[in-house]
Amino acid sequence: MAPVFSKPAVARFTAAYARNRPLIQRLLNLGFTAWMIGGTYMALRAKPKRPGQDVDAGGQGRSGSKRKGKGKGGDDADGKPKRVQVDAVFYARLRAILRIVIPGIRSKEAMLLIMHSALLVFRTAVSIYVANLDGKIVGSLVRAEFVPFLLNIVRWLLVAIPATWCNSWLSYVQSKLALAYRTRLTERAMQLYLGDVGSQDKIYYKISNLDDRIKNPDQMITVDIQRFSTHLAAIYSNIAKPLLDMILYNYQLSQSVGAESLLVLTIFVNLSARVLRLITPHFGAYTAEEAALAGSFRATQSRLAEASEEVAFYGGEEVEKMLVERDYYGLLMHASRVLRIRLWHGVAEEWIIKWLWGSMGLAICAVPVFFKLPGVSTTDLGTRTEGFVTNRRILLSSSDAFGRIMYSYKELAELAGYTARVSELFETMDDVKKSEYKKALVSSASIEDNAKVLQGRGEIFESDEIEFENVPIVTPNGDILVRSLSFKVEPGRHLLIVGPNGCGKSSLFRILGGLWPVYGGIVRKPASSEFILIPQRPYLSLGTLRDQVIYPHSPQDMAARGVTDARLLEILQKVQMGHIVEREGGWDVAREWHNTLSGGDKQKIAWARLFYHNPKYAILDECTSAVPLEVEQVLMETATQLGITLLTVSHRPSLWKYHHTILQYDGQGGYVFTELDAEKRLALQEEKQALEAKLLEVNNMKERLAELKALVEERGR
To answer: Among 209, 210, 634, 660, which one is most buried in terms of CB atoms within 10 A?
Structure first.
């Protein structure tokens, strides 16, 4: 029996292979294209999870159980930082965000993507043409062909025109894409954060006060969305362009060196790429952690700017400096650690991609020189040189493209970090909009019992009067201030609310204003728009003097109500602030009113705002503490004349006579709601103060008596 690998058998196989080589070449090229697309997809798809393995935020926790909550800073329930990876959760979040940034095939963003793709194809075609032209120029030099050399130089200069135009337009379109993505996401974020016109969601308040998941929404909206948009616009080019280049370059290269050589190169590159991926750190987690640390550092700086006066009075510079330095050095240490990781990873990455793959590529380019391939003519030195230069340039471009695909995984990991941040922002706002909150319980009472109360929901009905029936007053962190509150306020009957700090006075107002949910019982109240709050330190917005009085109305809203500047001046005169218009330079002057006006003037402006809007109910929280008693009297009487029902928190006895009922908390979860007899209460207050003064005199008399006894005893001796 003849051996399988006999010379005649090898000859027959070689002849058959040579006859069918064009078909084999096409099959290998198709296989390579399928491998590139499928391999890129597999390389960037979700990694399979082993049983019991941790996954990143938003997925399952250890051993597949769902997380019960999140710790501070977005950590898992056990306090360990969330893991952010290129996994199934990342792709699910990215798909959700893509539906926001590209709402339809006819959208502006879709058109920009199509234009971007067309430019990528055109640039690759130009690159292949330039590679062939480069080989022809070198070939004409070797052959000493002057005229072809000059013609090729002219072609080189002519092709530079569309090449440079294409590169500039690619950069421009990519920047436009990033800006369009950011605009879509910012509009969506602001729609959720501040709500539509007339919305009562108040996400901007609830996300900071009723939920623990996001500590710095301002940083996420202004910085993280911008970084995500930039990375998202770049990642398409960084993946699609190299993938397209790999397919076209290698097809072109296969015509010169044979698809068999590319098959060997592909296997070699694939094996080394797997090694490289195994040593690639989790850059996505590092990016998300750096964004969180940067947000914490910024929040510390903002807090210092807001409380600069208090810090200055207390002399707290050293403490604040320590806090700022703590956050900064935490960010600095993390950045330094990531730089060290990038250093050794970059060394390994460059050695594999540039030098190892480069040496293999040189060997592939030398195949037509040392071996005769069917259908490839290499008769003279010029032809061989031309082919080598062309193949070398195409191979370098192909190697660079594959390297960029490998680099893109690192960039994709960074995109995963920003995706986690942006997705967390939208997911949290969506949950808060549906009244689904996650907040750590810090109640001194039984956390389990309080958690049950927090899971309940009461009923709210719209009514002209205010009535609470068995409503628990609960803080978002689970502290139950009053287990069952019942009272009723009819229009025109002012309510005075008193009690120690932390007993639930402000909590009651937050329920009335629709800021806090009702955890049980029944609440009947007017719409939240029928309430206006005047705090002890009123909020003054950016804008003109007129804007401070009519806030949140615009001048157009004011005109639509038929209110003129003359009417506003009458309101200011009622609160004894009529002089401010002339003093500040008119209604249209804009200043930093928070710093321009004194505490008393701010309270007067807030009362002017109340008289302008003329709501059904006004919530007054120690809002006359900085005005004289005679001004306070005018303010209270004017509000009564306008038909505004007052809900007042104050311990000033001068306000008692303006109220009809009183809700008094004892600070231990109990309360008393009853009619208010101002004269009797004042008399009792005066009697109490007189008795306290006499008790103080008793102590003084006892001390004097002890002194006299000592003197008598001393003289007796």
So the answer is: 210
How many CB atoms lie under 10 A from the CB of residue 650?
20
What tokens does 50 get? 């082993």
Write the DSSP assignment of 113-128 as a string of letters. Answer: HHHHHHHHHHHHHHHH
Name the E strands within 499-578. Answer: 522-525, 531-534, 543-544
Residues 447/478, Cβ–Cβ less than 8 Å: yes
**Residue 439 carries which DSSP code?**
-
Residue (of 603, 553, 604) closest to 574 by Cα position? 604
Question: Rounded to 5 degrees, what angle do the CA atoms 701, 703, 705 make?
Answer: 65
Distance of CA 648 to the CA centre of its chain: 37
Judged against a pLDDT cut of 50, whether residue 46 lies above it is answered with: no
Q: Which two tokens stand for residue 537?
A: 């330190």
Give burial (CB, 10 Å; 0-12/13-18/19+) of 597: buried
Q: Specify the DSSP element, H or E, that contains 24.
A: helix 21-44
Angstrom CA distances, 543 to 583, 593, 614, stand at 17, 8, 22
The residues that bridge with 6 in the sheet, in sequence order, are none
- Residues facing 522 on adjacent strands: 459, 469
**Using N-to-C axis directions, what is the helix angle for 225-257 and 21-44, rounded to 10°?**
160
Given the structure tokens 């965000």, which residue do they identify?
A: 97
Instruction: Give 657's contacts (C-beta < 8 A, 6+ positions apart).
Output: 678, 679, 682
Rounded-to-integer distance, Cα 658 and Cα 352, Å: 83
pLDDT in tens, 355-412: 766 666 666 666 665 666 555 555 555 565 656 666 666 666 666 666 666 667 777 8
- For residue 331, the one-letter residue type is L
**CB–CB of 432/516 below 8 Å?**
no
Range scoring the smallest mean pLDDT among 13-17, 169-173, 399-403, 696-700: 13-17
Closest CA to 192 of 183, 182, 181, 203: 203
Contact in structure between 78 and 70 (CB atoms under 8 Å):
no
Q: At what angle do helices 146-194 and 108-143 cross, to 10 degrees?
A: 160
